[in-house]
Automatic annotation (TrEMBL):
GO biological process, one term: translation
Keywords: ATP-binding, Ligase, Nucleotide-binding, Protein biosynthesis
Official protein name in the record: Glutamyl-tRNA(Gln) amidotransferase subunit A
Organism: Collibacillus ludicampi
Name of the encoding gene: gatA
Reaction(s) this enzyme catalyzes, per UniProt: L-glutamyl-tRNA(Gln) + L-glutamine + ATP + H2O = L-glutaminyl-tRNA(Gln) + L-glutamate + ADP + phosphate + H(+)
E.C. number: 6.3.5.7
InterPro entries: Amidase, Amidase_CS, Amidase_dom, AS_sf, GatA
Amino acid sequence: TEAALKRISETDERVKAYLLVVGEQAMEEAKKLDQLPEGELPLLYGIPGAIKDNMVTRGIRTTCASKILSNYIPPYNATAVNKLQDNRFVLIGKTNMDEFAMGSSNENSGFFSTKNPWDLERVPGGSSGGSAATVAAKQVPFSLGSDTGGSIRQPAAYCGVVGLKPTYGLVSRFGLVAFASSLDQIGPFTRTVEDCAIVLQAIVGHDPNDSTSANVEIPDYLSALTGDIKGLKVAIPKEYFHAEGADPEVLEQVRNAIRVLEGLGATVDEVSLPHTKYAVATYYLLAPAEASSNLARYDGVRYGVRAEGAMNLVDMYKKTRSEGFGPEVKRRIMLGTYALSSGYYDAYYLRAQKTRTLIKQDFDRVFADYDVIVSPTAPTVAFKSGEKIDDPLTMYLNDIYTIPVNLAGIPAISVPCGLVNGLPVGLQIIGKAFDEATMLRVAHAYE
Ligand code: GLN
């Protein structure tokens, strides 16, 4: 904990991974843990970690990087945070993100943007950019992020660390501030696949406080890391290698990684996920639709900031929301309310739901014959700050490889696979629902 805080004080002025560092509290907790208990130590005993600022932490400000929550102090912990605490981790602080997790670059934070530790002129990715950057900058050995359309995997790729999005329902969403409830999942950032398996083990499990939490048997993830993937069946989706805007050098690194898997004894075949081309459009209807409903609760009454000087109730709502939300959040609320409005519902929301099913069926078909699907995590390496911020459509297209996984509810991990122009590339390994163990085994064997 001491080393983590020292490293943060040395580097975070440049990286800006944190919205809040709770140094004193962390040292207090760490000192308590110096007194070792009898018997076997819990999984994360004394290990410092950071939490994305959209997971509530009791008594510790939680803002979602939004001005509208800039004064919000939650009275309870997210289940994932409680589980880390049960395993005796030390909370170091809350990491920066795109406001309400909407974005792919961290530039939508309502406060400031986190920088990529590999090149401070570049974005760390998003929306969990702070959680990726803090692990990459070796400030902490692990952090938690959330992934609705790629927000763990894409920043993990851009920052050269490991990031895992679990199967929908494996990790409780209780206390994760809702963006798009049918897509959101919490997952770990770490530097190695082994660490990733340890953190995952700590946060999974059924939670009666989350109605979408799955009641499934939890395997021992560490013992899945055998190093042996002989005979495993790997599928390569051909659509992912012809995606618009994909950097050929990134694809080359991914092809090299696939050859490594072959060298380890896996069999590799090309497959088709024919509805891939609809994924981005489907996501950018469904996610804003859910967000527009979820964000209705920020009305200046129940949570966070209330605007001054309003003349009446409606005026107070308007002023609070106009001043409190940033431009991307407003764009999503407008897109979402439009898609859900009567008269347009059938044409947009309903159609997107049907397409979502087709995308899920694409994966079901492939997973009937294969153990994992392998692809790039993102079409490029980390881009320059400012490069895409004025062009939301290009920014949205960046999510092409990650979004289908959320729509299907299945797990995926991003592991570093080489460099292009000195910047890290991410390899995405997609698993069957609730088969994180096989996915981790492949990632570990490759690493
Ligand atoms: N980039 C995507 C978006 O802006 C994904 C965000 C996320 O996963 N939270 O919606």
